[in-house]
UniProtKB/TrEMBL annotation:
GO MF annotations in UniProt: ATP binding; hydrolase activity, hydrolyzing O-glycosyl compounds; metal ion binding; N-acylmannosamine kinase activity; UDP-N-acetylglucosamine 2-epimerase activity
Name of the featured protein: Bifunctional UDP-N-acetylglucosamine 2-epimerase/N-acetylmannosamine kinase
Species the sequence originates in: Cottoperca gobio
Keyword Metal-binding found: yes
Catalysed reactions, as listed in the record: an N-acyl-D-mannosamine + ATP = an N-acyl-D-mannosamine 6-phosphate + ADP + H(+); UDP-N-acetyl-alpha-D-glucosamine + H2O = aldehydo-N-acetyl-D-mannosamine + UDP + H(+)
GO cellular component: cytosol
The encoding gene: gne
Self-association and partners: Homodimer. Homotetramer. Homohexamer. The hexameric form exhibits both enzyme activities, whereas the dimeric form only catalyzes the phosphorylation of N-acyl-D-mannosamine.
Name of one Pfam family that matches: ROK
Amino acid sequence: MEGFEKEQSVILSENPQRRWMEKQPCLLHKNPHHLNIRKDQELYNLRMQSYGEKMLREKMEDYNQFKRKLRVCVATCNRADYSKLAPIMFGIKTNPDEFELEVVVLGSHLIDDYGNTFRMIEQDNFDIGSKLHTIVRGEDEAAMVESVGLALVKLPDVLQRLRPDILVVHGDRFDALALATAAALMNIRILHVEGGEVSGTIDDSIRHAISKLAHYHACCTRRAEQHLIAMCEDHSRILLAGCPSYDKLLSNNHRDDYMDIIKSWLGDKVQECDYIVALQHPVTTDIQHSIKIYGLMLDALIAFDKKTLILFPNIDAGSKEMVRVMRKKGIEQHPNFRAVKHIPFDQFIQLVNHAGCMIGNSSCGVREAGAFGTPVINLGTRQTGRETGENVLHVRDDDTQNKIYHALELQYGKRYPCSKIYGDGNAVPRILKFLQTIDLDEPLQKTFCFPPVKDSISQDIDHILETQSALAIDLGGTNLRVAIVGMRGNIVKKYTQPNPKTYEARMQLILKMCADAMHDSVSLNCRILGVGVSTGGRVNPQEGVVLDSTNLIQEWSSVDLRTPISDSLHLPVWVDNDGNCASLAEKKFGHGKRVENFVTVITGTGIGGGIIHNNELVHGSTFCAAELGHIMVSLEGPECSCGSRGCIEAYASGMALQKEAKRLHDEDLLEVEGMNIKLAEPITAAHLISAARLGNNNADTVLNKASTALGVGIVNILHTVNPTLVILSGVLASYYQAPVQRIISERALPSAQNIKVVTSELEEPALLGAASMVLDYATRRLY
């Protein structure tokens, strides 16, 4: 529509003469010639407006012609649900431009014993698209189940032929459950009418099952709406419409011919409010008790001695026995009784409206009768939980005839205020408007609005990534650290203590910190899969033994770490060198993801690292394959901690830079303008870097030599293992990255000059590497 209006506006404003004249209004009042122009212009405008309106009408006709109608299939199973669905069907039928109606009839509509009530649908001038005989006779529990099965066998052909956009299903009958099941499995949208209500029998289970299958809901009361929301249905797909039968019921409340209707069913002598309407159905979860109550009700009605219109029970299990009780008591021949199988709904509501009392367990007693103020006696548990007006007297424990008789004495002939709990007479317009808002392009799969709950332990991949964890240990020269690490590399909790100097104290502290972490993991919802240990020195990862320690960790040679930790925690334990762990961390969480061959170089207190070749960590025959800090780059270089000379570590490690910084400081060659070194402040590599950045040539010379030594060493690595990537890690990585990249481009073979050097983004490579050993092996995943 918006497009059509815009087009019309364009048509009416296309005349350039009109636009010019509108900008010169003074000319229209001074020159007679201009007055003629004005008249001609007005005539032209009228013609153009008429032409534009004609074009708009034609386009609207085309729009209506090709607009997609909503194909609505209404399926009715029995006389009761037709009384609720018929108003909707009439509403759909009166809007042929919006809807296309298909009617499917099944269930007891097609059974002679129940009045062949499909005929009243035909009398209402509805074309029945399909009639499905789905009832297996027997009126017991097995027959109900077989009827559902038979309906499920027959419905697919009908639904496939009709191909409705939406199926309208009512209430809580077993036939309706078959309809909803078939439609849901065939990806047909379902509108459930009167869901969310509570009645206290198997009908509750069926009604709620249909609600879970349905995509949209038209409920009758505020409480029913809240029940649907509590059942996790999407609030935006719930319409509080009211009961559709109330639309017809309230509009036909006072018919002039109501006495003719009463007399046609009960005889000429009966008077208004001087008869009883009785309608009792079996409770399928307690059939024997239903039969007993039915007999007590009939005895009480016989004793009460008033004209009574009694309807046959529905087709649920137990109805056959109830009819047998009725016939045994001679109700069909009794002069006070008129027993019928079916009454048209518009006549039935007049009979209920003007009755002296209604008795039984039909939902009509607690719903429709309240709109008239008709007194009702509700027997048994079938309507337990239903919302009722003050007109309903419940006889829940109706174990004697006298109790029912006394209820008749209390209720008969009374009138109560009219109740509109179940509707205000405007349900159908609301439902039709609701149907028009359905977007057929939105996803068919319904979603549920579950309340927030604590995640359960499941095999969902997101849950696995969040809860399966590792215990990581980092044995450094200064500190001992333990952390709980998740699958994503998130450190859930970290514990830090000074590293003891002796073996016994160190092992005792490791076990205590691990025990504390295990205790905390329960409240943190972390399942510990194993323990990973990162330590300095040469390590045999196959045995979990530290072979040789670094000078920074005392009493740490030939130490079996795996056995005591595993025995204490009852978990598998992995142990490796800290440089190798850094490479594993990059492989799982850092720049090394999906890279088959790369080298990690740690530039910290010492120089270390690890080599990943063909996705595997290289250890070497004696577990010293990645001692990158001890690659010699000069025959006569400075002395290294390993006892040799000219190693990378002797030039470029933090200790080597600190040694040079102290030398310059002692010679008063370190400080430059802009630096302020306090007297008691320890001299570190950071002072050397600061001095170089402030223009200290001596500091710059030292750092250039260190960068060159590291770069040449890495070039040797490139020529040896030919990785795709070099990752610099540690506190000096950001400083060395650019010089090393430059030296590679200058000194490496042409085939290796383009290998990229990057700086690690991992804050805790040792801990993450230790954790990755556990997470990769324990979960049997390759990355």
